[in-house]
Design a protein that fits this description.
The protein has 375 residues and is of the alpha/beta class. The strands form three sheets. It has a seven-stranded mixed β-sheet, with helices on both faces. Strands 9-12-11 form a three-stranded antiparallel β-sheet, covered by helices on one side. The structure holds pyridoxal-5'-phosphate. The site of pyridoxal-5'-phosphate has 13 residues, from helix 4.
Length: 375
């Protein structure tokens, strides 16, 4: 029997030093010196003894505003993008409201929709082009629709939206007076990314994060950007009246000050790792990549034809090989039994461990020989 996800996480954290962490789209490629000096200085200065400025460090807010370049958009800090997502649903949705969303998706957002008494209308996107299209969104909008959820690039598939499709979806939001929630957590991994706020500035809330691009997931800092009137409505539900973690702000500031210097190499290595995983999957009969190349730092590996459950693959790779990938059920009610998600902003050695472990794990699980991955 496979282990529940919570047990997998307990096991992985207990063995953290030995685990190739390919399960949470985290980024282990940012040079550590980018934030180390700033954090060490902040600790020496004992900044943690006092509260931060409630509205956030002014330089950090300015760096975020410049990173996004959205004229008229006001940045706001929260404890990760996650907290912004919660506040947005709490503030803007109520019982009976509907949100046009997808399956697969980052389902924590859907949970927040439900907590507000609303529901998601999940369009099945586990088929080409593996993302929403403006035609399907237009068709799905009904009298109860209040919001469109546009995650771009999309976790878990790694698919992304061409500029013209973002524009078309933004125009639907504008014409139908809907909120457009544009979650751009993985934006820096994507070439030619377009922000929906460029096309529908009044209706769009852009949710950003430094967890993935800057490799700061453990510090829990992110936020949102919106026009002041919309942001004001959402900010009524702010619980961080006394500000967001001061060390997280120091690290985010240091990372964003220097991002232009190192993000190119992070993305290059991430893509090289993605190509290595593609070769491994190509050498594994029964396995395939629905979306390649990924526009993010994760993708899904379809295992439906393998005859082995994703949970069993997760468990075997984790417990016997120290390689942590994620079974699909956490990302898709409908297709979760068909795929495993893998993330790859990691040192190449982690990817090689996966390449060695996968054929062995599948051989064990099926009790039969499996073609070896190419080296
Ligand atoms: C689409 C998406 N949005 C938001 C988040 C949460 O980001 P944060 O760490 O800033 O809370 C994630 C994390 O995996 C994500 O995949």
């Amino acid at each position: 029997m496979s282990t529940p996800a919570s047990d997998a996480f307990r096991y992985a954290h207990a063995h953290r030093a030995e685990i190739a962490w390919l399960s949470q789209n985290t980024n282990h490629l940012v040079p550590p010196e980018v934030v180390r000096g700033a954090l060490e200085q902040a600790v020496r200065d004992r900044l943690y003894e006092g509260y931060p400025l409630g509205s956030g460090d002014p330089e950090l807010l300015d760096l975020i505003a410049r990173d996004f370049g959205l004229a008229g958009g006001q940045p706001f800090l929260t404890s990760g993008g996650t907290e912004s997502l919660y506040m947005i649903m709490r503030a803007l949705l109520g019982p009976g409201d509907e949100v046009v969303a997808s399956d697969p998706s980052y389902l924590i957002i859907h949970k927040f929709v439900e907590l507000a008494g609303a529901r998601t209308n999940n369009l099945d996107i586990y088929a080409p082009p593996y993302r929403l299209t403006s035609d399907r969104v237009r068709e799905a909008v009904g009298a109860k629709t209040k919001m469109i959820l546009l995650i771009d690039p999309l976790n878990p598939l790694g698919s992304g939206y061409p500029r013209e499709e973002v524009r078309a979806i933004a125009e639907i939001a504008h014409d139908r007076h809907l909120i457009l929630l544009n979650d751009v957590t993985y934006r820096d991994f994507s070439d030619g990314h377009a922000l929906a706020a460029e096309f529908a500035p009044e209706e769009t809330v852009t949710v950003w994060s430094v967890s993935k691009n800057c490799g700061l997931a453990g510090l829990r800092i992110g936020g949102m950007i919106a026009r002041p009137d919309l942001l004001g409505k959402i900010a009524r539900f702010n619980t961080n009246d006394l500000g967001v973690n001061i060390l997280a702000q120091v690290a985010a500031r240091a990372a964003l000050r220097t991002k232009a210097r190192w993000i190119g190499e992070v993305v290059r290595q991430t893509r090289a790792n993605g190509a290595r995983i593609r070769d491994v999957v190509a050498g594994t009969p029964g396995m395939s990549l629905p979306v390649y190349p990924s526009r993010a730092n994760m993708m899904v590996m379809d295992v439906a034809k393998l005859g082995v459950a994703p949970e069993a693959i997760q468990e075997e790779l984790l417990k016997r090989h120290g390689v942590f990938v994620r079974a699909g059920n956490y990302l898709s009610p409908k297709h979760g039994s068909q795929f495993v998600r893998i993330s790859f902003s990691n040192p190449p050695g982690d990817i090689e461990r996966f390449a060695r472990a996968l054929p062995e794990a599948l051989r064990t699980l099926r009790g039969a020989p499996v073609a070896a991955a190419p080296h």
